[in-house]
């Protein structure tokens, strides 16, 4: 038995990872009791380790509960793909923002979710639920659909087997979503229409490095019906520029 926990074979690192893994998009804030239950650890152990995590900024207090701390996000930005992406994409994202005045996103896949690495807010009052460092369902977002279309087969299978409805317009039929993903791979862009939040639509394209889709960039606006072609063209030009800077093959 490792440490002072009743879980045989558990290391301190393993217990900390169990605590942190209890947080997800459906559980962004947890009480001490909930953390212990989701981590399957004794409350006394969780109390001690959570206090350490708060002291080091990995967790933070929020009205009696706990949330992921800024320190974890800061460390995550040091990962080569994310730090390189943000630095490389930044001038292109500013160009998109200047040309469209819409909310602009840079996102990567994080397991079975989409992680927002950068966001530039638009001028229009369009409801946008994303924030830098947040994760959202891939099937309900434009950037998420792009990343899901190019994800490994096992990732697509898991996402398709657990489609949740966020708004009345969220695609929850696996067959319909599969057809959309095939179109994304063929046409090079994805759209959503009020699937993540009412009153917000999006269009997104992939960013490639060599033969791999490493990210997606997207625009959120009140409507994309009339401007979809123009917005897609702006995004694709930016994606090609980012791909060149990353040393990859630009998308066709």
TrEMBL record:
UniProt cross-references to PROSITE patterns, sorted A to Z: HTH_ICLR (PS51077), ICLR_ED (PS51078)
Keyword Phosphoprotein tagged: no
Ranges where the HTH iclR-type domain occurs: 10-70
UniProt KW keywords: DNA-binding, Transcription, Transcription regulation
One matching Pfam family: HTH_IclR
Boundaries of every IclR-ED domain copy: 71-248
Domain of life: Bacteria
Biological processes per GO annotation: negative regulation of DNA-templated transcription
UniProt cross-references to InterPro entries, sorted A to Z: GAF-like_dom_sf, HTH_MetabolicPath_Reg, Tscrpt_reg_IclR_C, Tscrpt_reg_IclR_N, WH-like_DNA-bd_sf, WH_DNA-bd_sf
GO MF terms, alphabetically ordered: DNA binding; DNA-binding transcription factor activity
Transcription as UniProt keyword: yes
Protein name: IclR family transcriptional regulator
Native organism: Parafrankia colletiae
């Amino acid at each position: 038995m490792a440490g002072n926990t009743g879980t045989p074979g558990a290391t301190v690192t393993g217990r900390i990872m169990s605590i942190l893994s209890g947080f997800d998009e459906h559980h962004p804030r947890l009480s001490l009791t909930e953390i212990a239950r989701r981590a399957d650890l004794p409350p006394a152990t969780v109390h001690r380790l959570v206090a350490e995590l708060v002291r080091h900024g990995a967790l933070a207090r929020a009205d009696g509960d706990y949330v992921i701390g800024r320190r974890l996000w800061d460390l995550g930005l040091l990962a080569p793909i994310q730090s390189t992406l943000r630095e490389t994409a930044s001038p292109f994202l500013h160009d998109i923002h200047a040309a469209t005045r819409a909310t602009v996103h840079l996102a990567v896949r994080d397991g079975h979710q989409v992680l927002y690495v950068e966001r530039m807010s638009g001028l229009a009052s369009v409801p946008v639920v994303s924030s830098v460092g947040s994760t959202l369902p891939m099937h309900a977002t434009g950037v998420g659909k792009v990343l899901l279309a190019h994800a490994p087969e096992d990732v697509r299978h898991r996402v398709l087997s657990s489609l949740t409805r966020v708004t009345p317009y969220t695609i929850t039929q696996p067959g319909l979503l599969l057809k959309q993903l095939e179109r994304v791979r063929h046409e090079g862009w994805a759209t959503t229409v009020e699937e993540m939040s009412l009153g917000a639509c999006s269009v997104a394209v992939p960013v490639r490095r060599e033969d791999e889709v490493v990210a997606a960039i997207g625009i959120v606006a009140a409507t994309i019906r009339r401007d979809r072609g123009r917005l897609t063209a702006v995004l694709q030009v930016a994606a090609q520029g980012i791909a060149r800077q990353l040393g990859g093959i630009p998308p066709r």
